Amino acid sequence: MKSMQSFMVALIMVALISCNNEPAADTTSAAPAFSLDSAKAAIAASNDAFMAAFTKGDSTGVAACYATDGKIMPAGMPAIEGQAGISGFVAASVHMGLKDFKLSTSNVWGGEELVGEEGTYTLTAADGTAVDNGKYIVLWKKENGAWKMFRDVWTSNVPPAPVK
Question: Which pLDDT score is estimated for 51?
């Protein structure tokens, strides 16, 4: 009789354990959790690469900081899309005498799909003259595991020249 009771207790235990309907956690395919601090660090590193490439006159290096479908939206002209178009715009800017581009990030926010960045910029000519300064907003997205600029818009703080 004692063995029958032990058997019944074991059978009930197995039944109770097998009633757990929750799926087992799959830890092998879980994507890493989004970290805004990691995104901020990646954006800061990309901005450093952007500024260094611009200072060297490396338009291809600047364009590599953008997503393949990235778009810049400068004031006073149509938007320019794609790395080739962005590279051409930067090359023309360097050819016009722009030499140094400084970015200063003031805020970064967002989630794993898109991250926004806002800040200020200063553009300097080859002779050291400050040419422009203003503010910008960039939307970043992940492309091949790296944060890339997706949309980039900026506006100058310098008033437009008077119309003659």
Answer: 96
